[in-house]
Amino acid sequence: MRKDAIRDKVAVVGMGCCKFGENWDQDPQDMIVEAAYEAYADAGLEDPQRQIEAVFCGAQYPSKGTAEVADALKLYDRPVSMVVNYCATGTDAFRYGVFAVACGMYDTVLVVGFDKPKDRGVSGPSVAVTGVRGLPATPAGWFSHCAARYFQTYGAGREDLARIAVKNHHNGTLAPKSMLKREITVDDALKARIISWPFGLYDCAAQSDGAAAAILTRRDLAKGFRDDYIVVRAIGIALAPDPKEDPDFDFLRWKPTVYAAKQVYDQAGITNPRAEIHVAQVHDCFTLTELLAYEDLGFCEKGSAKEHIASGTFALGGELPVNTDGGLKTFGHPTGATGVRMIYENYKQLQGKADERQVKNATVGLSHNIGGAPQACGICIVATP
Amino acid sequence: MVGIASYGAYVPRLRLPLSAIAGGKPGGPEKSVANWDEDSVTMAVAAAIACLDGVERTTVDGVVFASTSYPFKEKQAAAIIAKALDLRRDVLTVDLGDSLRAGTTALRTAADSIRAGSAKRVLVVAGETRMAAPRSPLEANIGDGAASFLVADAEVALAIEAHYAIADEIIDVWRTEGDPFVHAWEDRFVVDHGYRENVEEVVRGLFAKTGLGAKDFARLVLYGPDARSHAGVARELGFASGQVQDGLFGKVGNAGAAFAPLLLAAAMEEVKAGDRLLLVSYGDGAEAFVLGATPLVGRLEGRRGVAWHLARRAELASYDLYLRFRQLLATEHDRRAGAGLSATKHFRDRDADLTLLAQRCRRCAQAQYPHQRVCYRCHAKDEFEPLRLSDRIGSLKSFTFDNFAGSPSPPLVASVVDVEGARLYLQLTDCAPQEVKLDMPVELTFRKIHEAGGTPNYYWKGTPVR
Questions:
Q1: Which ipTM did the prediction report?
Q2: How near does any CA of chain B get to the CA of A206, in Å?
Q3: Reduced 3-state DSSP string for chain A
């Protein structure tokens, strides 16, 4: 890997995000149009049909594939591609967009992440039998597998998880496009019905529909769009074995995050993440996922997350605010949209446009997704130029 | 000398108090009930594993499976059992069904095949999960269980010294195609003209054939439809109550075709060298065996027999739960829904799924599961040897209690278990959440993993070592 191959070479000049939620009255194309046209307007694109040269899409369960985006935006006669990479789908679509611009093939591209899980008729993911060996696909069941051993090893417990849910619920009340806008208490979280131990209802992200979009261009062209553009400093994807089959797995961390973090920190030249990153959006499909991300991303020492949760290191106003918009917890998790939605929040933060959620003097933001069993992680670091 | 070289038994851990069916005070008699993920095949595999303790599995030449409650109408159980047990590919497989007598007929069939010279060691397995209509007297009578014997030409613990059988046509107990429930004619008729007449005729016939009488037997192992008729017929045949093997009424219940085999397994835990046993079963006629215990019977101590399973019990929390297990209550999630398995995928995954074969890398020795082409550790390609995990003890690496995954008995306990260094993603069964502890030893048990497509789909689960 050439560490500086893309560093700061690609600018984000416009972003859009539809309101996430149970969007019963919107189909995927409605949400794609909302997100993309917000991004067009934000970037000041005068003629998207002429200026957008290629489109990179991310969706975990699209009904139509690339045509969903091409048809919604009438972007034909140019490349439209789709990426699927578990919960890192949106981040990976963004990554391909970055590469397409960085290599000089296109001046300006559009990235669209979207998903519409609420058309499936279930409040969570569908419980489908896929084979003899597999248990029903329950992400809560999969992501809880680190809990027992982590708790035993480091003395953490459900209360520490509850505090993460309380923080994110609070942050979500401040985000215009979040789905859940309700404060909760630690007691609410602890008393809620158990979905998959140790996860109670409030430890789990909701299901929602959503779409988010980004306009990327060459850094030297960015000024033509706006002054307060941001640049992509590093972006990485890493896979790891299914933790349920991996003979070496210790159930104290998620390997994909550890692997991907090394890639992006190498690319960005970051050696002290807690000091060098000012705002982070991490994957909080479940509260424990966020807890492990603090450590796996190097925001704190392995085993020390509970102290930092208690002291507010990752709260708004803390040393390194995490999930300033309320995260998956309050936005829900339309898989393909989430990674792009996180970059949208970092973009607003770095532009100083995050209103009540604003992190002071933030110039470097990190976003992180982990998904599958989990096996895949995507991380993106953006910065002011 | 042809006889029984080994035995194993299985009684499901769950017990339903008869008071839950018919009312009355709790704490009285009970019956064994299969868990929701058990059926005659899974229980047969469990009994067979106990029976094959210390037996080299490649020496088994045949499997004869007996049951009236096997879930498939077409598709053989013995072949599934042989695969789960990792037996040889050229094994004889036979299913016997349709009669309460099938269990002992399986013994006779195995012995005959050995005497005919076509086999040396044949595994006999009987398993039952019969159902009668909810809250019927018959429902209270029926219990679930399985037993297994290794019938062999040498080194036998019980020699088959004589045998006699009769066939009879009588409408006493029956179940027709498409009917989940066993039915019976009026009990006094069934007992008098079915059970009593046939059993007394076959025993008297065997006495006449051998010159033996009741006093020559240390133990009468007698099928009985209920405790009263069981005791009555034993008495009429001239046996003292001390000679009669406990019928397990109020503990297990009438285990159908597996009942006489189960009682024989219980007897084998107790008899001494030199003891003579009379085994009698009933169903569409009757069948009797004279069995002589050899000194080898003492070598079989310490295995999982009936006594071990009787001691390992857990009461089912409610009758509703029992109805749900048997799919007699409509529920939100139909366990039989879905397209079912891909038969071609099943075909490719049989070794991993049914035999629980993992693999060990020949280069770095890392065990891994499921089947891989490239080693997780040293990345060697296609350098693996098979490693059977089903008879190994694992260690619990992680767990969760999942209320979201549909289960008839939530929460579903999902776990990752390390077995010989390979990691297996397993459901735990027969296990209450409060029993689950990190690093606890876990054994493997063959179960129905689900019934997508309306067929039982079998895989292995974990259960605490007890």
A1: 0.91
A2: 14
A3: CCCCCCCCCEEEEEEEECCCECCCCCCHHHHHHHHHHHHHHHHCCCCHHHHCCEEEEECCCCCCCHHHHHHHHCCCCCCEEEECECECHHHHHHHHHHHHHHCCCCCEEEEEEEECHHHCCCCCCCCCCCCCCCCCCCHHHHHHHHHHHHHHHHCCCHHHHHHHHHHHHHHHHCCCCCCCCCCCCHHHHHHCCEEECCEEHHHECCCCEEEEEEEEEEHHHHCCCCCCCEEEEEEEEEECCCCCCCCCCCCCCCHHHHHHHHHHHHHHCCCCHHHHCCEEECCCCEHHHHHHHHHHCCCCCCCCHHHHHHHCCCCCCCCCCECCCCHHHHHCCCHHHHHHHHHHHHHHHHHCCCHHHCCCCCCEEEEEEEECCCCEEEEEEEECC
Joined together, the tokens standing for residue B305 give 């027999």
Output the CA–CA distances (angstroms, integers) from residue B245 to A88, B217, B240, B241, B260, in the order listed.
65, 11, 11, 9, 10
**Residue B21 in tokens:** 């069916």
How far apart, in whole angstroms, are the C-alpha atoms of residue B226 and residue B205? 23
Q: Residue B385: pLDDT above 80?
A: yes
Closest CA to B283 of B4, B47, B68: B68
Find, among B270, B187, B192, B174, the residue nearest to B232 by Cα.
Answer: B192
Distance (Å, whole) CA A98 – CA A2:
15
A151 close to B (CB below 8 A): no
Angle at A258 between CA A257 and CA A262, to 5 degrees: 110
Q: For residues B277-289, give the mean pLDDT.
A: 98
* Residue B26 predicted with pLDDT over 90: no
For residue A125, what pLDDT is reported? 67
In angstroms, rounded to a whole number, what is the distance separating the alpha carbons of residues A131 and B110? 36
Segment (H or E) for B450 = strand B441-450
For residue B453, give the 3-state DSSP assignment: helix
Interface contact flag, A194 B411, Cβ < 8 Å? yes
Least Cα distance to B149 among B61, B59, B47, B68 occurs for B47
The arithmetic mean of pLDDT across residues A344-366, rounded, is 98
Whether the predicted pLDDT of A299 surpasses 80: yes
Angle at B238 between CA B232 and CA B240, to 5 degrees: 75
Q: CB-based burial of residue B95 (10 Å sphere; 0-12 exposed, 13-18 middle, 19+ buried)?
A: buried
Question: How would you class A182 by CB atoms within 10 Å of its CB: exposed for 0-12, middle for 13-18, buried for 19 or more?
Answer: exposed
Q: Is the dihedral of CA B228, B230, B235, B239 positive or negative?
A: negative
Report the C-alpha dihedral over residues A252, A1, A235, A39, rounded to 10 degrees.
Answer: -160
Chain B residue with minimal CA distance to A200?
Answer: B403
Which residues 236-255 of A have a C-beta within 8 angstroms of B? 241-249, 251
Residues of B in contact with A197 (CB under 8 A): 400-402, 411, 433
Nearest to A197 among B366, B368, B401 (CB): B401
- Looking up tokens 């961390």 gives A253
Dihedrals phi, psi of A3, to nearest 5 degrees: -60, -35
For residue B354, which of A296, A133, A354, A238 has the smallest C-alpha distance? A133
CA dihedral B415, B306, B321, B459 (to 10 degrees): 40
With 80 as the cut, is the pLDDT of residue A133 above it?
no
Q: Could you tell me which residues come within 8 angstroms of residue B423 by beta carbon, excluding any fewer than 6 positions away?
A: A244, A245, A246, A247, A249, B368, B369, B397, B416, B417
Contact B341 A131 (CB under 8 A): yes
What integer pLDDT is reported at residue A346 of this predicted model? 98
Query: Are the beta carbons of B376 and A132 separated by less than 8 Å?
Result: no
Q: State the amino acid at position B46 in one-letter form.
A: A
Q: What's CA A216's distance to the chain center, in Å?
A: 18
